[in-house]
Structures are given as structure tokens and as C-alpha cells.
Write a structure and sequence with these properties.
By secondary structure, the protein is an alpha+beta fold. Helix content is 31%, strand content 29%. The strands form two sheets. It has a three-stranded mixed β-sheet with strand order 1-4-3, with no helix packed on it. The longest helix has 13 residues, at 63-75. It comes from Daphnia galeata.
């Protein structure tokens, strides 16, 4: 599991951008973030910490995005 917490304008803009997507499948890429792991009694995971210069992109126009969508559709059709 990956946990992401957003604050202020970043969170507000992210919610608006997600609502404006034209697809049900949403892939989010994060650049300029710091990843750290955590362990809790309920689950282990990764936390992404963002900064003022972090880049958050919804459905990025790149080959990796298309490959991920194909994988998701083939791995679990219920995800799409």
C-alpha cells in the first residue's frame, strides 16, 4: 500500500483534477517526492512526502502509463 497525504492548494487542485478526468481509470505519477516505509499493527506500506516543487500528474502521457493500464486490465478486469 502507498499512502499519500496532500495539503492546501495541492489537495484542492488534485481533487478538482480527478473530478475532471474523462476516464474511470486513474493513474497518478509523483515526481520530486521522498518515499519512506512504515510498519503498523495493521499493515506495512510506503508513504510519499511531497514538497513545494513536487510534481503530481494525473494520467501522464507516457508509455509507462499505457503499459500500466494494459497490465491492470489483464490482471484484474474489475479494476477497469
Amino acid at each position: 500500500m502507498v499512502s499519500v497525504t496532500m495539503w492546501g492548494e495541492t489537495a484542492t487542485n488534485f481533487i478538482k483534477d480527478i473530478k475532471n478526468t474523462s476516464t474511470n481509470e486513474v493513474v497518478v505519477s509523483f515526481g520530486g517526492v521522498q518515499a519512506s516505509t512504515y510498519v503498523s499493527p495493521h499493515e506495512d506500506g510506503v508513504c510519499l512526502n511531497s514538497f513545494d516543487d513536487s510534481i503530481i500528474t494525473i494520467n501522464p502521457d507516457c508509455e509507462e502509463y499505457r503499459k500500466l493500464l494494459t497490465w491492470m486490465e489483464n490482471e484484474d478486469p474489475d479494476l477497469s
